[in-house]
Fold each of these.
Amino acid sequence: MVHRSHHDMGGMDAGPVEQIDHVHVLWEKRTDAIMRLVTDKDRKIMTVDELRRGIEQLGPEVYDKMSYYERWITSVTNNLLEKGTINVDELGRKMAKIEARWQADGATKV
Amino acid sequence: MSKSYLVGDAVDVRIAYPPGHIRAPFFIRGKSGTIDQVVGDYHNPEELAYGRKGTEKLMLYRVRFNQTDVWNNYTGPSKDSLIVDIYENWLEPNEGALK
């Protein structure tokens, strides 16, 4: 039986803290905006507690590999799929469409 | 659910390791502290985390712990303390503590 959940790392060795300002790229700002929209008082589609639960359920390997906002958008996505706000099919099609648009624009992934 | 506490009350954090979304951090379970502040009552975040309404409201406390009680090898000043936000469902009265 594992007592400590992977994310629950308070007090563990983690090395020095990098005290620098983080520059957020556009998709990270959009992720923040999406989270605000789905949790606001008019929509109440999900809660910040559900966001956290979703992040905690990512699994240790994925949790460590992902950046802060990658964890956010993955948890938001999974929550919205669970609730039926979006479905896998439309999400897959939309992702493919955007990827094709990027390639047409010669854009590189960030 | 559990009793309400007043500032200065001695409390223990329950020792339990259920799966799920838990709002009492691992490192503080089983430790003893004192109520520093009564924050107010909020819908239970451990229920809200699963999309349930969390209609049961729980009192949230700021609990002060001595660093030397929390960490085995704490080398800082003995008067150092830390404060953790803990909901009432994770607290029990510390009957043995001297007031």
Amino acid sequence: MNEAVKVPKEKVKAKHESPPRLLVEHVTKTFPGVVAVNDVSIEIRPGEIHAMVGENGAGKSTLMHVVAGVYKPEIGTMFLDGTPYAPADEMAATKAGVAMVFQEGSLFPPLSIAENIFAGRQPVNRVDVIDFNDMNKKTRELLKDLDVDEDPSTRIAMLSPGQKQLVEIAKALSHQVRLLILDEPTSSLTINESRNLFRILQRLAKRGVAIIYVTHRLAEVFEVADRVTVLKDGKVTGVREIKKTHPDELIRLEVGRELSFAPSKERVSKDAPLALEIQDLVASPVKHASLTVKAGEIVCLAGLVGAGRTELCQAIFGLRKIESGKIRVNGVELVPRHPRDAMNVGVGMVTEDRREGGLFLPMSILLNVSAANLEAVSRQGIIQDDKVTEISTRFAEKLRIATTSLNRQVMYLSGGNQQKVLLARWLARQPKVLIVDEPTRGVDVGAKSDLYEILRGLARDGVALLVVSSDLPEVLALSHRIVVMSEGRTVGELDARKADEVTILQMATPKSAVHQGE
Amino acid sequence: MPAKKQTPEMEKTAVKEPVEKPKKNLVWWFNRILYDRILLLIAMITLLIVLMSFTYPREFPTWPNFAAVMLDTAQGGIITTGMLVLLICGVFDLSAGNILALSGIVAGILVADLETPVFVAILGGILTGLVVGIVNGLIITKLRINALITTLAMSGILRGVTQIISPAGVANLPDPFKPFGQVKLLGLQSPFWYMLMVVLVAWFLLSRTRFFRQFYYVGSNAKAATLSGIKVPTVTLVGFAIMGTLAGFAGTVLASRLSNAVVLAGTGIELRAITAAILGGASLSGGQGTVPGAFLGVLFVSLIQNALIILRVPVFYQGIVVGIVLLVAIGIDQFGHAKK
């Protein structure tokens, strides 16, 4: 902690002596129909961790791609350590000392760590044979630097997401990086892995590396960054010293309005009928689960990663073999062998992996919404285009999906709008029970607030909601009741009014781990 | 019917008006034609017809040549329709040509050696294709072996079976069997009319019906399709059954047209079918493709073949040309993805 406090002081001095590490002046980048980055100027100092925040579509990623040489700006200039910087492509940027760690991994899973770091530029001997000793030695040094305790010959596929992220950083460091750009680096990391990453970033910054940290998560900004730039609609709306700002101020700069994530005070009445009952359910890796959800109630499933929450949802929705136990929907027993069985009794499920398992990315909003509603949009087996349009239009308006046209392919929508398309697909079925797995993952704050309102509205209309979320503030804000899972079992229930993060975490922590003394 | 590149229907509807309308100048039209597969094919076909008509006015623009080209599209059109259904579903069938050959032989043996009635022979040929298609589908959906390997293995098996049951094929099929593949209507032989029916029915089914809409979802994202309540294995199985049935039908028609069940019938037809479908806007990554596009693809490939014959290019070179056209088509497909 002490170190972290000292660093900014040294930087204040450095600021007067040396030019900024990166100076971006009046950069504009447009795509057909959109000005993604509009006359943006930013300044990044050597040795600082500079957070870049903003809603999806605010232009953060585009700006970073410009800096990393992926896109060329139409207007504007950039300077790196005082000298003009106009990279022709990513390779040129890397050579100049600017490296970007991408959101989606750019590693080769079947190859070793060393071969990934030195891909395409492996050290060779005189007859052009790869010098594995030299390559592994260099890799070992890089890994040691980042506290990765793995052999250079380990294949990437064997690593955890956190280790993969560090290998990407090692790859950047092997290029003598001066400016390191990280785009949503913690989206697939556990809390411990994130902490470890922050520690390493702070160490790199102390050595003088400038770091741009693009993220959605304001908590991380306050944990790791020195300064923060907020973007909205392609423009900079504010630059703040972390110590002189507050999350509420950043949200206001991001969204342009005040948002509230306070817990809802609504409660479902005591005599509301049970919509979903799960009794002694066993469906490996779910070892034993019992819970109920009343009509109009929001029940959140809380727990650590690997507690079996998603797997329980999959079992209810017919995606996992049920070994024993009972599921009842509105009092009728459900034996789901295929999602169709669950859908027939009024159950819907919004999956957590929106891009892989939820949406048909190259298809239009119309086709995505109608995917689970083919009976409703057809007559005697023939698709009625006017009905397809009708239900999509109705729910696009209801959920405020921002798009120029319903014919737009969903891959071009922001995370929040994609999530709304997925919700629209299920709302069109008018479900009695809706399972929502990670409703706001990878979604910006504005859309998050919209999604909370939508889910609360559904509950008011009498839909029983079973929500899985790893975001504890979200669990507390959204739920009426919380069911905690640990190691494949439901271990307890809490009234959301009386619950807090600590209690939930205590219940969620595996007891076996406590015995081992960790 | 506005047949767009992605998927059928759409066009009308919009929450708000698009922000700005591009100017329809020459560049706009050029891009439009380049990216709309159907317009591109129409342009290329027109170009080919005009060029050939001017350079070979005595051979090319004649009724017999037109009838020959139409007859040539018959077999390709039927097989391509089946292949298109599978490509939309994200898979393909490399055994189609061998199903075609086996079905022809079965029909030939039934009608010539076993002296069954004609309709039994025709039904036998078609059912042979259906059975093989179902076996392909079951292996792929139940044993979860991928379509490439399954149908590649199946084509080896079928070729062997065909040669064992009839090493030299069945020659001189009896007269009552001939009208099925040889009767003429409006100057064109029956296989063309069968193809036209298959294409029209498939066009309607794929663009308008609920069941066939599911193929687009399965090909686009099988996992999301399952989660939307679509029975992916059933859809896939039906796709292979359709392919098998159409290949069986094409084989039977061919045997009747030639009055001969040939062991080597249908060699390389899979290559032509995949080429035509992809030229017409289908994609190896699934979820895309339309019947009009695929049909224009077939027509284009047939016209190329016809041009090569008129130019007196030796038959072996024709395979090379079709192979190159396939590579170019896939290249355009990949380029389209990269642009996105």
